[in-house]
Design a protein that fits this description.
The structure is a homodimer. Chain A is an all-alpha fold and about 220 residues long. Chain A folds into two domains: about 60 residues, Arc Repressor Mutant, subunit A (Orthogonal Bundle); about 130 residues, Tetracycline Repressor, domain 2 (Orthogonal Bundle). Chain A has ten helices and no strands. In chain A, helix 1 crosses helix 4, helix 8 packs across helix 9 and helix 9 runs antiparallel to helix 10. The N and C termini of chain A lie far apart (about 55 Å). At the A-B interface, helix 1, helix 5, helix 7, helix 8 and helix 9 of A face helix 1, helix 5, helix 7, helix 8 and helix 9 of B. Chain A binds a DNA duplex (18 and 18 nucleotides) through helix 1 and helix 3.
Chain lengths: ~220, ~220
DNA sequence: GTCTATAAATAGATAGAC
DNA sequence: GTCTATCTATTTATAGAC
């Protein structure tokens, strides 16, 4: 995380300062959200003044864009290294990495909620990132099916399992933010192992549109 | 939801106005969060001035407390009407109710993230509410076990399943906030049905502390 | 490239008239 | 009980010296 982009070019010190600002912005936006996270706070942490930040970024929104880009770079690294079930197993090490850089999880959750309104500067980014995650999850699940790692599922089930996995990851992250004592790695690892086992025995969850439930197994 | 507390006492009109303020505060805090949600916005929606709000509540934090109390009243209603698996089946109608009053879901998620810092005014409330939900879920799960509705699980599994259910509910809610077109009721209903089926066949998920996974089933 | 000083807008909160 | 007017603090952003 530190010492990235140690450029030897003509403006190396400028870039280092800029990287420092972005690094602190990740933490501040993660902690307080984009709206409430102030340039003042970011400036103090960077050992700088708000006015100096405005020399590096035209406005606050530009800084947010840079933060999101920085965040994305750190996340898409392992995406191509694993295929099928191996990809889902790798979510454990992804989680380890996220825990080590807590600012990113804070930022992700905070922005996911804050940017749910369409007029938020980060809204298009958050929506696009969510759709990309859905695409990645469904692709690897289909890959696992096509290669015989797990039995077939229909399209609705594949889509639902992807939604469910994202929900579990996000939901556990919320619990971890609320109480850092919980073992996030264990909870996510347990789910990943369990869901892979479930997929292998053909136990994908299939959404059934409003079947007028009879509660027939109630007593 | 409307017309609660139609008091016939000496100060009935005052209470009606106060209720109106709280009602609008739920929506504003839900939409923008507590910090960014302004008294100005609440005042305009209530057809009133910010100064008038301060006559009803000593400060902004007092208003938040009232909002949380109001929210809680609406939620704990059905808690005692169902036991064991029937309680988990009732989560479907709870979801229907939540969808009908979107402001509460917004408020819950927004505050869960925003109030994760210990210095937030709503932090103790959010933590306590989370622990209460854990207690309710584990109690009903144990009730289902004790009454023979489902096979036994060890304590760690019961706890994990409660964490997991909360994560799924929260995670799906996030997705719904980000894209209101998804069928939240179907997604939650599908999980509830599936997890009950899974519990019945003795398929509770059991967390296994760091067993130095061998990846032996990798392919 | 960073600083000090400051502008312009908005926040929560108070005073006092009615 | 609600209003107008105002206070203080904080926000993003700009101007200009160094």
């Amino acid at each position: 995380m530190q010492e990235v982009k140690r450029a030897r070019g003509p403006y190396r010190s400028g870039l280092k300062r800029r990287a420092k600002i972005v690094e602190q912005a990740v933490e501040v936006f993660g902690r307080y959200g984009y709206s409430k996270g102030s340039l003042q706070e970011i400036a103090i942490r960077s050992g700088i003044t708000p006015a100096a930040i405005m020399r590096h970024f035209d406005n606050k929104e530009e800084l947010l864009v840079e933060v999101l880009r920085h965040w994305d770079d750190a996340q898409v690294a392992d995406e191509k290294r694993y295929q099928g079930l191996a990809y889902f197993r790798s979510l454990r090490s992804v989680t380890e990495n996220n825990i080590a850089h807590r600012g990113f999880i804070d930022l992700y959750l905070t922005l996911s909620i804050e940017a749910s309104r369409a007029d938020h500067p980060a809204h298009p980014f958050v929506v696009e990132r969510y759709e990309r995650t859905m695409e990645v999850f469904t692709r690897h699940l289909r890959h696992a099916i096509d290669n015989g790692e797990i039995p077939a599922m229909d399209d609705d089930t594949v889509t639902y399992e992807a939604h469910l996995l994202i929900a579990v990851l996000d939901g556990f992250a919320i619990q971890w933010m609320l109480d850092a004592r919980i073992d996030l790695l264990l909870m996510i690892g347990t789910y990943v192992d369990a869901v892979i086992t479930r997929w292998k025995i053909g136990g994908g969850y299939r959404p059934e549109p409003a079947a007028e439930k009879q509660d027939q197994d109630a007593g």
